[in-house]
């Protein structure tokens, strides 16, 4: 599953995509949720935890299981296609979520669930409409965003 994540590339024909780097995805939950799990210390300790699922394909579960979590579809009772909804569910203590470490570490309401667990690496793509090639203003903003995002 990790290979599938790393090799993902946006393929929509009307969009222009540029890979700007790789990022680490880490498991997060509220301190209360972590305490309710008994302060897990190893991946298999999460086999009864609930996670917010972000895909219909099972790729997230497969990726987490490569890290030794031993999860089944029952561990994913919540499904959303919105990262904002997923993150708010995590912040409200509903379940564990996986997110870019830069974002998760900056949020004081959550903690890394297994701080020593190897992160999943995923590609970051900056995507724009094909007007990027014909509109100078859009291109300037796109290039600025690409440069800034590479710094994080």
Notes on the protein architecture:
The chain has 152 residues and is an alpha+beta fold. The chain has six helices and six strands. The strands form two sheets. Strands 1, 4, 5 and 6 form a four-stranded antiparallel sheet that branches. Helix 3 links the parallel strand 2 and strand 3. The longest helix has 16 residues. 20% of the residues are buried. The N terminus is likely disordered.
Instruction: Report the count of strand segments.
Output: 6
Largest sheet: 4 strands, antiparallel
Report helical residue fraction.
Answer: 25-40%
Give the N-terminus to C-terminus distance in angstroms.
Answer: 25 Å
Strand content: 15-25%
The H/E string reads HEHEHEHEHEEH
Rg over CA atoms, rounded to whole Å, is 17 Å
Q: Counting H and I runs of at least 4 residues, what is the number of helices?
A: 6
> Which structural class do you get from the secondary structure elements?
alpha+beta
Average pLDDT over all residues: 87
Shape estimate: elongated
Give the uncertain stretches in residue-range form: 1-6
């Amino acid at each position: 599953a990790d290979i599938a994540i790393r090799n993902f590339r946006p393929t929509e024909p009307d969009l222009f995509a540029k890979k700007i780097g790789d990022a680490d995805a880490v498991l997060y939950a509220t301190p209360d949720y972590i305490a309710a799990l008994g302060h897990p210390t190893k991946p298999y300790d999460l086999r009864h935890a609930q996670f917010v699922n972000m895909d219909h394909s099972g790729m997230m579960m497969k990726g987490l299981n490569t890290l030794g979590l031993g999860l089944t579809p029952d561990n994913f009772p919540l499904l959303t296609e919105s990262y904002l909804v997923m993150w708010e569910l995590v912040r409200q203590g509903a379940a564990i979520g996986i997110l870019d470490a830069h974002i998760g570490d900056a949020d004081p309401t959550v903690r890394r669930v297994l701080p020593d667990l190897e992160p999943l690496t995923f590609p970051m793509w900056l995507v724009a409409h094909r007007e990027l090639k014909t509109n100078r203003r859009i291109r300037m903003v796109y290039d600025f965003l690409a440069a800034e995002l590479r710094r994080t």
